[in-house]
Structure formats: structure tokens, C-alpha cells
Amino acid sequence: MSGTEPGERADRFRRLHLETYADLLRFVERRVPASEAEDIVSAVFLTAWRRFDDITDDARPWLFAVARKTMANGNRGWLRRQALDVRLVTLEPREPGDDGTGTAVRIDLERALRGLRPADREVLALIAFDGLTTEQAATVLGVRRTAFAMRLTRARERLRAALEPAPASAPHTLKEQAWTA
Does the residue 144 lie in any domain? Predict the structure, then answer.
């Protein structure tokens, strides 16, 4: 859909907008809250303007595909922000009378989680805190279920290792202590 003159390009884009805006808005409104629909459609037309030369003569399918991807990206971003908000869960005030053992376990868990890579925290949070299934979490991250399952297994192993007590160093014998003193 490339044009030679900038004015001609702008006119063709205006026609495209007039011809497809209502259909695209209805398409988006069926999938997201009405309050978000116009923002998504605006983002689609911004993408269309930037990539105007890539649009085929039948622009509607291309625009609808861009809209789907824009909605999916918005969803993934929202879910990621929710999943990475783990520290708020661990910082909630506890009720009085909470025993010291429970507090120690929570502190150990929080330290272990903070010691993990962000990708591991995200995988664990999607399952443990957000309650997603493996399939749903894989969709959130845009990977296959098997790839997500492997990431989850590795993240659990790293968390388990982080929760293991550090091996105590062997006590020095009297002779070794004399050398180090």
C-alpha cells in the first residue's frame, strides 16, 4: 500500500481509517472492557501508520491481527506485573500471636525468593501466588507448556537449594587452631 507522495499517503491512511475504524472497534470491544477499546484501536492505527507500506490491499485482516497482538501484549504485561508483586504478599502485616517458627519460615522463604533470578520468581509466582495452571502460565509467558514445566521444575529446584541450610564448616582441631592463631 505504498504511495509516492506524502499527501497521497496521508489521504490513503485517512480512507483506511474511515473504512475500518468501526469494524475494528467492534472487534476489540467484544474482547476487552469498553473503557480500554479505543486506546487499543488507537495503538493499532499507530502501528498501521508506522508500517503502512506492509499493509496489503485487504487491510482488515492485518488490522485485526495487530489488534489481537496488542490485546495479548497488554494482558501479558498486566499478568507479569501481578506475578512480580511477590514482595507485597510477603510484607503483609501478620496477626498478633503469630508464632516465632512461622515467622522464621516466612523470613527464610522471602530471602530465598529474593535470591532467585527474576525469571525463576516469575515462574513460581504464576503458579503459587496467581493460581494459574501450567498451561495458563505457559500462555502468559508465550512458551510451550513443556518449556514452562521445565522452567518451573528448575525454579523449584533452585528455591529448594536456596532454602537448604548452609553446610557448617568442619570444626578446627587444636593443631589447626594453633596455626591460624
Answer: yes
